[in-house]
């Protein structure tokens, strides 16, 4: 296509070359869609690059940007999966990835809006089996690339009107969500939210230095939280670079202990989706957690979102853990230097569009031996989906159910739903699920 000449690159790229490379990227997305028509990323990328907004993306920037060079090669780090079509699939993925990276390196050779957009969609192209397939790289991406993200978001979250705006509201009035009324005893309850700070890139675009800087920004906040709830910071960051030793560094043995106790998250390098998005880069720098003395409050830093803030409790009243989390968030937001990023249409900003809005996942462990009598959660999922509930194993996504038929259930909705409505739907979901279980 004549794009190998240096004169065709950068801000002086000819309209003809730019159009040819745009067409090539579109063809790559169409190849992915031929394999998986449900890949929203590629579906809406094709439409976006053919739109006026997509064609008008800037390709001007600084030549000394190094972040794009990290994605100019194909490390082929996808973990091998079992199945008769996997070898064929991986060959297709790697061929697509290599040719596409070559194309993008010529199409978006510098730090530009076009390069940032490519990083947003990269995981969906690298992983044809994606259902969503995109991550924002900065809090502003949802508006900057609105012609793309708005379609993805409203498709995924089921807004056929195309005009909904998210509202934040924790007020539950005088609601009574005690599950003892449903014949339940103590349940293991957990509520978490994803949050990201103003003034930082989202994890997919963070450099190692920015990850360290973010962790250091949060240390005074953790200290203030400790004054109220006690606890410790457990950090995996080997060092603070020019700032020297990390006082909160833990051993590998301690890290594994925290992972086994579900206090800390696993190494993200094994996840091909997070890998492609750059979210797992620079491991283990900028990764760790704060845990309160009573073990009921945890904040992860450096995972898919800059912060995952969670509360857990064993009890019968769902409002207890819900209220604990709200109080914790109010405390954090009052700390100097901490401001959560928000979007006027989509609420709290998260890396993945699936978590926008509340960023909340509220879950309980419920015992349903009849619906899991075959040893799997297949029937439970069939029953729960119409109720608006997601079902997982007791150790999280892709983990087995409990030997006694215990599963983890949570409302599926995150966006265009109020926080108070999520906790209400969880209670209603438990009620309806137990009616089916006991029928």
Q: What's a quick, concise take on this entry?
A:
A hairpin with a 5-residue loop joins strand 3 and strand 4. The protein is 38% helix and 12% strand.
Summarize the structure in words:
The chain contains 13 helices and ten strands. It is an alpha+beta fold and 439 residues long. The strands form two sheets. Strands 2-3-4-5-1-8-10-9 form an eight-stranded antiparallel beta sheet. Helix 2 (40-49) runs antiparallel to helix 7 (146-156) and helix 4 (86-107) packs antiparallel against helix 5 (113-126).
Keywords:
single chain, globular, 439 residues, 12% strand, alpha+beta, eight-stranded antiparallel β-sheet
Q: How many strands appear in the DSSP assignment?
A: 10
C-alpha geometry: globular
Report the average pLDDT across residues. Answer: 86
Count of alpha and pi helical runs: 13
Structural class: alpha+beta
Would you identify the regions where 5 or more consecutive residues have pLDDT less than 50?
Answer: 1-11, 62-87
Write the element-wise H/E pattern from the N-terminal end onward: HHHHHHHEHEHHEEEHEEEHEEH
Q: How would you write the strand order of the largest sheet?
A: 2-3-4-5-1-8-10-9
């Amino acid at each position: 296509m004549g794009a190998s000449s240096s004169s065709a690159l950068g801000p002086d790229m000819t309209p003809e070359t730019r159009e040819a490379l745009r067409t090539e990227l579109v063809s790559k997305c169409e190849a992915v869609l031929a394999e998986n028509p449900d890949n929203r990323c590629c579906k809406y990328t094709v439409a976006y690059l053919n739109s006026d907004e997509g064609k008008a993306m800037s390709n001007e920037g600084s030549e000394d940007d190094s972040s794009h060079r990290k994605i100019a090669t194909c490390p082929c780090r996808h973990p091998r999966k079992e199945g008769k079509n996997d070898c064929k699939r991986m060959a297709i993925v790697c061929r697509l990835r290599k040719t596409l990276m070559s194309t993008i390196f010529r199409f978006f050779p510098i730090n530009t809006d076009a390069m940032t957009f490519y990083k947003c969609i990269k995981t969906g192209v690298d992983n044809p089996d994606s259902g969503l397939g995109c991550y924002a790289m900065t809090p502003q991406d949802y508006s900057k690339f609105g012609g793309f993200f708005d379609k993805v978001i409203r498709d995924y979250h089921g807004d056929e009107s195309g005009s909904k705006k998210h509202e934040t509201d924790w007020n539950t009035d005088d609601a009574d969500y005690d599950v003892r009324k449903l014949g339940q005893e103590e349940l293991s309850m957990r509520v978490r939210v994803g949050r990201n700070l103003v003034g930082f890139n989202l994890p997919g675009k963070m450099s190692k230095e920015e990850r360290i800087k973010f962790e250091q920004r949060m240390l005074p906040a953790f200290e203030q939280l400790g004054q109220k709830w006690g606890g410790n910071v457990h950090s995996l960051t080997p060092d603070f670079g020019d700032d020297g030793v990390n006082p909160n560094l833990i051993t590998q043995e301690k890290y594994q202990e925290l992972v086994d106790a579900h206090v800390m998250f696993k190494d993200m390098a094994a996840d091909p989706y997070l890998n492609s998005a750059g979210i797992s880069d620079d491991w283990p720098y900028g990764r760790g957690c704060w845990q309160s003395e009573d073990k009921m409050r945890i904040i992860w830093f450096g995972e898919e979102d800059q912060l995952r803030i969670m509360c857990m409790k064993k009890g019968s009243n769902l409002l207890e853990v819900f209220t604990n989390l709200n109080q914790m968030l109010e405390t954090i937001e009052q700390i100097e230097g901490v401001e959560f990023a928000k979007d006027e249409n989509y609420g709290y900003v998260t890396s993945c569009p699936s978590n926008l809005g509340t960023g909340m996942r509220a879950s309980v462990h419920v015992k349903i031996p009849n619906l899991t009598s075959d040893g799997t959660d297949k029937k439970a999922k069939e029953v729960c989906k119409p109720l608006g509930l997601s079902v997982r194993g007791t150790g999280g996504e892709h983990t087995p159910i409990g030997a006694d038929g215990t599963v983890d259930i949570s409302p599926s909705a995150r966006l265009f739903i109020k926080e108070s409505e999520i906790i209400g739907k969880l209670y209603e979901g438990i009620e309806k699920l137990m009616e089916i279980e006991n029928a």
